Amino acid sequence: MSISKRSLIYVAGHCGMVGSAIVGALERHDYGNLLVRPRAELDLTEQAAVQAFFLQHRPEVVILAAARVGGILANSSHPAQFIRDNLLIQGNVIEAARCAGAQKLVFLGSSCIYPRLAPQPIREEYLLTGPLEPTNEWYAVAKIAGVKLCQAYRREYGFNAICLMTTNLYGPGDSFDLENSHVLPALIRRFHEAKLRGDDRVVAWGTGTPRREFLHVFDLAEAVVLLTKSRSSTSAAARTSPSESFARS
Q1: Annotated active-site positions, please?
Q2: pLDDT tens digits, residue range 28-87?
Q3: Which residues contact 76 (CB under 8 A, 6 or more apart)?
Q4: How many CB atoms lie within 10 A of CB 46?
Q5: What is the pLDDT of residue 76?
Q6: Mind listing the pLDDT tens digit for each residue in 170-201?
Q7: Residue (of 183, 179, 180) closest to 168 by Cα position
Q8: Residue 115: is the preceding peptide bond cis (ω within 30°)?
Q9: What's the CA gap between 172 and 86, in Å, rounded?
Q10: Which of 19, 69, 101, 211 is the right S-S partner for 13, CB 3.0 to 4.6 Å?
Q11: How many whole angstroms separate alpha carbon 8 and alpha carbon 195?
Q12: Spatial separation of the C-alpha atoms in residues 29 and 26, rounded to whole Å
C-alpha cells in the first residue's frame, strides 16, 4: 500500500525530539490528517487505554517514535524503568495497531541494538552476534525485542511493520539535562557552561578515543516520511525472512 495525503497517521511520541520532527516533516509534505496524543491523555504503557484508543480512531499508519530514552547515567541509574517501559510501549502499540487494522507501522529503533564491538560499517546480520554496550543494554534489549516483535508479526500475521535503526541524534527539542541527555547535547552544555565560567578546559567522560556518528533529527524525519509513504505489500511481507523487515518499505 501507499499512503495518501488524506491517510490518518498516528505519531506516537509526538512531544519528543524525534516525534516532533516527524510531525513537522509530515506537515511539510502536506500530510495533514495527523493523530497525536500527549502522555497526559494517553499513557502508552496502559494496554487497555491503548487498545481503546486504536479501536476508536483506527489509524491507517502508525509511526512508533515513543520511548523512554536517556543517556549513560539515566540508563545506568534506572535499568528497570528503561526495559519495562519500552517493552510495554512497543507491545501495546504494535498489538493494538494490528487489531485495529493499521496498514503500516514504522518502528523506530537504535543502533545500540548491535554488539558494542560489531565490525564497521554495521550490517543487519551482526544483530545478536556479541555482547551489547553495558551502559545502555537495558534500552538495547527492549529495542531488540521491538524489532523481533515486528518481524514475528510480519511472519505470522502478514502485518506490514518496518524497523528503522537510528544513530546518535541531535537537534531541536533535545534534552540538555546532564543526567538524561545523550552525548552531543551533554557536550554542548559542558562547553557552553565552561565558556561562561571562563574555564580553560572541559572534562568529559571516557578516554576520548571512541568514534561516534551523529545524525540531525530533521534528516531522520525526512527518511521516516520517505519510508512511510513508500509502497509495500503485506502479502509479500509475510513471505520474507524476518531480517528483511529492516528498512523494507
Answers
A1: 139
A2: 999 999 999 999 999 999 999 999 999 999 999 999 999 998 878 888 899 999 999 999
A3: 135
A4: 13
A5: 87
A6: 999 888 887 777 788 888 999 999 999 999 99
A7: 183
A8: no
A9: 23
A10: 19
A11: 47
A12: 5
Question: Could you tell me the sign of the dihedral formed by the alpha carbons of 172, 145, 237, 7, in that order?
Answer: negative
In angstroms, the CA 211 to CA 75 distance is 20
Mean pLDDT, rounded, of the chain: 89
Q: What distances in angstroms separate CA 237 from CA 66, 78, 85, 171, one per listed residue?
A: 24, 37, 28, 34
Q: Find cell 545524525 and name the residue.
A: 215
The C-alpha cell that represents 74 in the structure block: 539515566
Locate 231 and state its grid cell.
509502497
Question: d(Cα 202, Cα 189) in Å, to the nearest integer?
Answer: 10
Q: Which residues contact 75 (CB under 8 A, 6 or more apart)?
A: 82, 135, 136, 138, 139
Candidates 102, 106, 108, 107; CA nearest to 157 is 102
**Nearest alpha carbon to residue 9 among 104, 86, 96:** 104
CB contact at 8 A, 69 and 139: yes
